[in-house]
Specification:
This protein is of the alpha/beta class. It has eight helices and 14 strands.
Length: 315
């Protein structure tokens, strides 16, 4: 049975782009929510077309889920966590999987003149576009606190200078807060394998749908040693801990139909260039010799090869 990734979701970078954090720097909330609405309609249309053309196939969109946590048990922080889940997760997932927007978020936007314009037939199209599975890109979790002081959107750490990420938020709804209970990458992304298990359980309980992890991995400054090796024990540890949580989630009843590590080789990031590496295979980009593009298998390559060969027993 073939399956297809409809790629209908907005990644956190796409959301940041639409809110003006990336070029061309347009900040227009009304335009953002209308653009998202059009993307959701396109996703539903693609699913309907796919089912006509491939009636025995499976299709689903991909969504980057960053689970929200309250920064404290203060009711104001718990409400901020709820707001973040509504606007950053449910706003996209509910139309994908329930056919409508979350009520509280839509009411807030409507009162401020920011809700997307719904044409005749839009609601029916969304309702008819439920997929067969949901793809999930997971990298990190985020803590949120009340934002009574009006903190707005801040820039993203694109240099790998650890600790350079500023507090960011939406006035009156939420703002980011540090999580003292998890380690972070050089790009200030929380290393939170339990967060992946939380994501899987939240999605399984809310939407009752099979899930495929379409991206999960560690971006780091990998170094080629003089003897031509790349020792990336941190990546092995990251992937091992996340795969272990996947196994627990399956035992807890989550219908997890696949896991895809990101990525096979080091790739170009339009935000971070070549400095942030995710691959099992290192690509040597020597600035002094443009012809030196050696491919080097990192330690993680051999480890993951054993994991696949043993169906996870070699974790």
């Amino acid at each position: 049975m073939p399956w297809h990734d409809a790629r209908g979701g907005c990644s956190h970078f796409q959301r940041a782009y639409l809110l003006g954090l990336h070029p061309p720097g347009v900040r227009d909330a009304k335009r953002f929510y209308q653009a998202v609405h059009v993307a959701l309609l396109a996703n539903a249309t693609a699913i309907q077309s796919f089912r006509r053309l491939v009636p025995d196939g499976m299709i689903g969109p991909v969504f980057p889920y960053m689970p929200a946590y309250p920064a404290s048990p203060r009711p104001e922080d718990v409400l901020a966590f709820e707001n973040a889940e509504e606007f950053l997760q449910h706003w996209f997932l509910d139309p994908f999987l329930r056919g409508h927007y979350p009520d509280a978020a839509f009411a807030r936007l409507k009162a401020r003149g920011l809700a997307p314009e719904m044409l005749d037939g839009d609601a029916g199209l969304l309702a008819a576009g439920r997929p067969d599975f949901l793809g999930v890109n997971y990298y990190f979790s985020v803590c949120y606190a009340a934002n009574a002081d009006g903190v707005g959107l801040a820039g993203i750490n694109s240099t790998g200078a650890k600790g350079s990420t500023d507090v960011s938020g939406v006035p009156g709804l939420y703002k980011t807060a540090p999580n003292p209970f998890v380690e972070t990458t050089e790009w200030d992304w929380a290393i939170d394998p339990v967060g992946l298990r939380i994501v899987l359980r939240r999605l399984a309980n809310r939407y009752r749908i099979p899930i495929m992890i379409t991206e999960n991995g560690l971006g780091a400054f990998d170094t080629l040693t003089p003897d031509g090796c790349v020792h990336d024990a941190d990546r092995v540890g990251y992937l091992r801990s996340h795969l272990e949580e996947c196994r627990i989630a399956i035992d807890e009843g989550v219908d997890l139909i696949g896991y895809c590590a990101w990525s096979f080789t080091d790739v170009l990031s339009w935000l971070n260039g070549y400095q942030k590496r995710y691959g099992f295979i290192y690509i040597n980009r020597d600035e002094t010799d443009a012809r030196d593009l050696r491919r080097v298998r990192k330690d993680s390559f051999a480890w993951y090869q054993r994991v696949i060969a043993t169906n996870g027993a070699a974790l």
